[in-house]
Amino acid sequence: MGKDWSEREPGQPFFARITFMETHRDFHRDPERPIAIEDVELPPYYPDTPFVRRDWANGLESMQVVDRKIGKLLQRLEDEGLADNTLVFFIGDHGRCHVRGKQFLYDGGLRIPMIMRWPSKVEAGGVNDDLVSSLDICATVLDAAGIEPPVPLHGHSLLGDEVAKREYIFAARDRMGDTHDAMRSVRSKDFKLIMNLMPERAYCQYSGYKEGAYPMMAELNILHMKGQLTAAQARFMAASKPKIELFDLRSDPHEINNVADDPEYADVKEELLTELASWRENVIHDQGVSDDFRAVGVFPESCPEPTVGQWISRHKDEYDFKKYGYPGWYPTRTLSEWEKVREIWEPYVFRAPDSHMKRPKGF
């Protein structure tokens, strides 16, 4: 064990996990290659405003910063003569840190980068469109090391042919911090089905993490309350969710047109529901959602404060939020409160590329 592979014995194999935090909130601006807001392309579910463009561009700049750090790491392997016999994975631990990204089951929340580099074994520049999961990394590492898995694995080695036979990828979301929600999904190459087990809850119910880290939350809520979002943008700001969402990824890669009730997709819907039910029963042994998890009858019917966060702070000794989660009240702030939040975010979002301004706190 050591903090760096330079500490190992001569010729000793090594495993290293190196974490880059720049693409998490806070986003790091890139003074070497700043990105103008006019040069970014937004997904259609975000409003096209300078505020949103700048927040999105800041995220892209943070990726550039990480990219250069990875380049230096790979160069070190080259300089030390280790590159040809070192298998490198570059992945993300979750989807992007944006509204409708991380913690949700759309591709923006589930798809992560997956790049392999092994000059002696993996062809450079190749692109593979197989359905791949981060569960496959364990199987791949064991395969590369010539080790038989001691127990059956859900993942497949990316160095073999089994992964190409995979037809579906599954995912689940439940408690995130003290925010309770429950979603399940199944994805094929062409379709994605999401089952919302708590459709009575808003997508954007209170999350201390998101309201304190995502500037775009303020912009979206303000525009939604003023009726200035498009239908595709407003759908994610609704007070409840459909029980089933189904997307044809061939024509709708941004997952904004729910075709779950379209008769043309009835067979696809039935197929994916069957596969999802099998996975829930046989793999994750899904117990569904309990009344305690829903906090049935626990909280008042509506929020008596201007913000849900204020109410939670003032009643933290009266309720067991660890057990019941936060109330599902929505919206989580009044319009005037969201406007205050946006005003606080403004100088931070538009900070200069070489600025060291800290993210505002206390929302």
UniProtKB/TrEMBL annotation:
Sulfatase N-terminal domain: residues covered: 7-147
Superkingdom of the organism of origin: Bacteria
Pfam assignment, any one: Sulfatase
Keyword line: Hydrolase
GO MF, one annotated term: arylsulfatase activity
Keyword Hydrolase: yes
InterPro entries recorded: Alkaline_phosphatase_core_sf, Sulfatase, Sulfatase_N
Family: Belongs to the sulfatase family.
Protein name: Sulfatase atsG
Species annotation: Rhodopirellula sallentina SM41
